[in-house]
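Feature request, filed as a ticket because there's no other form

It would be nice if the structure record came with a short human-readable summary line next to the tokens. Right now we just get the raw output. Example of a typical job, pasted below so the devs can see what we mean:
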Amino acid sequence: MQKKNVLITGVSRGIGKAIKEALKASDQYNLILPSRQDMDLTRSENITKYFNEKKIQVDILINNAGINILNNIEDIKQNTVEDMLAINLVAPLSLIQSCVPYMKSQKWGRIVNISSIWGIRSKEYRTLYSATKFALNGITKALSRELGEHNILVNAVCPGYVNTELTNKNISPAEQDTIKATIPLKRFAEPAEIAHLIKFLISEENTYITGQTIIIDGGFLA
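Raw output as currently delivered:
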């Protein structure tokens, strides 16, 4: 079987790192893992430049990179707005635009956008984050309709609370204990559990799941 080229953003830690490790263990994939120095996600022209210079052909795109800056509405700065929109929304869209022509030519492709439960419902201080994730879910649904005839499956994965560095930075240990008590499974997900779902969605085994915003949250939103 010919290996599939998989481009993953944001692999230095957390869910992205877990996805990288899960796919490295397989002999089915060639991993393309651009660093921040390779591809600046804050500027869409740099994404285009990266593809033009590297001449890469991507079978599978996993849009994982994202930022979550918590602020009340009065304290949101314009540079924060620009950064979160650029990385969480514009960059995934630009990457999809760069990858789709090759996928269409092959009549096969997989796109997974890493969204969030805060793209399904929201919470205080997450105005910008939810705005970007609701929009990313909308892109996912629209593109599943547009690209389906080319056998390109587009899905979003919406994790709940995950045991990552970002979670530990944004949520105190005491608050984490309070939240865990509201989750039916009484714990946060491990990054590897999210990666396992993504590994299935990009695989040849997934032949009919597209246009979905798949929640993986231990029952929290239930």
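Something like this underneath would help us a lot:
The first helix runs from residue 14 to 24.
The mean pLDDT is 96.
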